[in-house]
Amino acid sequence: MVKYDLIDFKIRGDARGSLVALEKGTEFPFDIKRVYYIWGTNKNVIRGRHAHRNLEQVIVCVSGSCDFILDNGHERTTVHLDKPYQGLYIKSNIWREFTNFSPDCVVMVLASEHYDEADYIRDYQTFLSEISENKGV
Ligand code: TYD
Fold first, then answer.
1. Ligand 1 centroid from CA 117, angstroms
2. How far is the CA of 136 from the centre of ligand 1 (A)?
3. Separation in Å, CA 2 to CA 74, 77, 79, 91
4. Is the CB of 64 inside a 6 Å radius of any atom of ligand 1?
5. How many angstroms separate the CA atoms of 87 and 58, rounded?
6. Which of 79, 82, 95, 124 would bridge 71 by S-S if both were Cys, CB 3.0 to 4.6 A apart?
7. One digit per residue, pLDDT tens: the chain, 137 residues?
8. Nearest CA to ligand 1 atom 22
9. Is 84's C-beta closer than 6 angstroms to any atom of ligand 1?
10. Residue 136, SS3?
11. Buried (b) or exposed (e) across 102-126, using 16+ Cβ within 10 A?
């Protein structure tokens, strides 16, 4: 089983619409150090194609939909994201690719660390060897 969680955020909705607030220490598994978001991506583009050595992320499709393919080196699973009140929580050492973007898709990513290229594993074979080395520790 590829490890991930889907977190349902509390919706503060009323007749005017819906609101989700994500505040340090309450709705969240880690302290957020960085937020980035992606939009205007063509349907069949594949983004991601990397793993992280230490980073944790919560990914929210705040508009539209897309698919996240998660790979732990042994198994792959696809998570369809289409709910602005749901966060996909991924820890480190998971290879991820995301694709199948709807035209209105906006993906917001909340990250536990600042951007650090040294934390990225961008080559799949390197990912496989690093996770098998980690298991031996
Ligand atoms: P990239 O890692 O290719 O995005 P994705 O994995 O979502 O497809 O990032 C695209 C560019 O943006 C790349 O030059 C690195 C830069 N970038 C930052 O400067 N800060 C960030 O927090 C992120 C995620 C990317």
1. 9
2. 31
3. 8, 7, 11, 11
4. no
5. 6
6. 95
7. 999 999 999 999 999 999 999 987 777 899 999 999 999 999 999 999 999 999 999 999 999 999 999 999 999 999 999 999 999 999 999 999 999 999 999 999 999 999 999 999 999 999 999 999 887 55
8. 115
9. no
10. helix
11. eeebbbbbbbbbeeeeebebeeeee
From the CB of 36, is ligand 1 less than 6 Å away? yes
Nearest CA to ligand 1 atom 6: 48
Tokens read off for 115: 């951007």
Enter the tokens of residue 41: 């991506």
Q: Report the amino acid identity of residue 96.
A: R
Q: How do beta strands 57-63 and 86-90 pair? A: antiparallel
Upper half-sphere CA count for residue 73 (Cβ side, 13 Å): 18
Catalytic residues: 50
Q: Say whether 86 sits in a helix, a strand or coil.
A: strand
Write out 14-32 in H/E/C secondary structure. Answer: ECCECCCCCCCCCCCCCCC
Atom of ligand 1 nearest to the CA of 49: 6
